[in-house]
Structure formats: C-alpha cells, structure tokens
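Entry 14. Two folds queued back to back today. First construct below, sequence then structure tokens.
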Amino acid sequence: MANFRGGIKELLKNNSNDKFLIIGSKNYLDLITNDINDSIEGKIIKPENIIVISAKEASGQLRKQTLKANPELRHYFKCTMANLNYRIANEILAQKADFDIKSFQNVIDKIKVLSPPRKKIANLSDEEIKEKVIKILTTHGNDASSKTKALSIFRNKYNLSCSAERFTPIYKFCKSKLY
C-alpha cells in the first residue's frame, strides 16, 4: 500500500478479489475504518477478504475481521507496543495460516500459551533502579549503549518494569558516573 497513489477505497475497488492484511496503529485504523466499511457495505469487497491486526478494535462490519493485539503478547515477542502488530502479523504469516479470522486467531491463541508469564514485582525505588542500570551498563557493554537498549534489557532480561520517562534520567545519571 505504501507505493499506491490513491485512497483505500480505490485500492479495494481495483483489487476486490485480493486478500488484505491491514496492520496498523489505533490512529491509522481510525483514518481508514470508515472507507473500508463503506467498501464492504457497497459490496466492493467481501469482508472475509480483509483482516485487521491492531491494538484497537475496528467498528462496523470490519469489527468481525479485527484481531485485537493483546499487550501481554509483547513479552512473547520481546517488543514494544509500537512493534507488536507487525510481530503478530509476521508470526501468522510464518505459520502459513489460512487467510481467515479463525485461523489467525488460532495462531494468536498458540502464542498466548507459549508466552511466558510476566513477573509481578513491587515498585522499585530510584536507588534500586540505579543499581540495576549500573549492572546493565557494566555487564552488557555495547548492548546497553543507548537508553532504549538498556531499558529493553531492564524490561526483558530482568523482567522489570519502569516507564521510559522515569528510566531516562536515571540512565543518564548512571552513565555519567561510570564514563
């Protein structure tokens, strides 16, 4: 779709027998849902020819064709929410699932079973976070060369939780003390 010069309605009309896997953020889905629903209602395209993967559930006829990305699946894929829709779609395609909502949902259900449970932890103090950040910086070297990489290690390897807003100044402080 990235190279297509026209609206989604035109794309669906010109390719009405094709299958469309739409992977998008809530904002993207908000922009295109009405056009897709109009295309379905106008019988330009069959609803079963479209599947949406998004953190937001679509409205109208498209709702039945939407797989809502469960935020807990981030832990299986070890990714951010921004990357989750793509990772789910990639896994579904890798499994060579039939192009129907039930087959896609079965793949997601299998992923949920394989997904490790997220450890529940108590809120960490700034001092406890500093200790972990120093450990990350000293033991992971280049793998922790940016705050984003270090936060990913903090979250995924150590199964800890911290917002980026809180982590950033602590990371900068620790890095300045070490280097």
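Second construct, same run, same settings:
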Amino acid sequence: MGFKGMYFVLITLSIYLIQHTDAFPRDSSVTKTETLLELHETASSTVKGSPVQVLSESDVKIPGRVSCPYEEATEYAICQEHCLPKGYSYGICVSETCSCI
C-alpha cells in the first residue's frame, strides 16, 4: 500500500471529516434559535403599529462622514482638519461630503 495509498486514505479521511464537522457559532449569544412563525408575528406587529417614514438623501447620515456645503469639488478647511489627522495628505468637499485623498 505505498505512499499513494496512504495519501489516498488521508485525503479521503480529511474530506469525510470536513463534511461531517459541526461548526460552532463565534458568539455564544447566537445559540438561541427562533422559529419562523415567531419572527413573522413580531415583524408584522411592529409594522402595523409604526407609520412609514420616507427619508430623502439629505436626511440620511452615514456615521463617520463629515458633511460640507459644496456640491462641486472644493477646498474646505473643515475637510482638511478632518482628513489630515487620519494620515491623508489632502481633504476636499465633494457632493456635500468631505473626501480624503
């Protein structure tokens, strides 16, 4: 049964063990499972009670982004102050948001 046979057995055993391994969740709080019916009931009850709110693009704020007043690419001191401490060499205002270069 030479080396080829040993490699074949080793590879076959590895494939078998990988396919039959049960993975554990990274976070122990994830172990609780909920049925689909419970999720559906909680989702439908929250949707019925709350009014729908439509947000425009200007209302949506992304965390960590600094807004500025210019639509076109413009030098702006607040963008410079925001970008330079982060290690970027330049900061400009584009589409009402500071961009670091």
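Quick look at the second one. The mean pLDDT is 75. Strands lie at 74-75, 91-94, 97-100.
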